[in-house]
Amino acid sequence: MKKITILLFMINAFALHSIAQNVSNVTAMQNGEQIIVSYKIDGGDADKVYTPTLYYSNDSGANYIKCISTKADYGKPNQTNQITWAVTNDLDYFGGENILFKVSVYGFFNFVKGVAIISGRKYKTIKIGSVEWMVENLNLDVGTSCWCYNDKPSNCDKYGRLYNLEDAKRAANKCTGWFLPTKLYFEVLDEFIKESNVSSQIKTSSMNVQNGGRNEVKNSYSKGGVFTWLNDLNFFWSSTTDGNMKALVYTLSESGRISSSSYEYNFNGCSVRLFRLAQ
Which fold has domain 3-109? Predict the structure, then answer.
């Protein structure tokens, strides 16, 4: 039978990452076979949420070990937050006179789901910090160089349109206040998705990366008129070009990550996700 004995708490707090906030007012109490640690994040960014990590030491701080079986909501600045550690899930025995705890917090931008009217059509969006992204592919007919998958209009309603690069830019210009992302914006977005993997709900909600293709055009269109990649990968134009006939294309996979695939010729057809500075 597992036994938990706690004779004395000595609490310490620290910030693990350079962008983490200072942690203060750390207190701990035993509740049966659990330990509840309270803490406060000093300062912080109201547009961010913070994921906490709890560590313990039983040798006066010479070594720290991460507490595995913890449960906590995202921490918020300037208020009391809590972490609950199910000690007996991790240890057969826990006790001593020189126990120390450390709390680290790592901040990433909170997300807020919304809806935007773009050129008369309603699109789902998500606000990440100061940037608002479309979470559905653009469906705006701007000419002969944009297509519905397999030339079926119903696929435009389901997946959005495919554009060559020039029509992608033309479509973006018709959406006042919205922009075709540069390489930098895609990299920042991927950083958010990577950091938000502490919650599959955020990942799924943020850019529909696990939806099996329901809201994404997982395809590309070649000059020869062959439609490919449906329900496999989603290809997005960026506005970053090589100065000639190619632009950087990014992929969105079901694994939840955004990556640059390559510079593709501007006559290929790819999906478009626009962004704007959040209002």
Answer: Immunoglobulin-like (2.60.40)
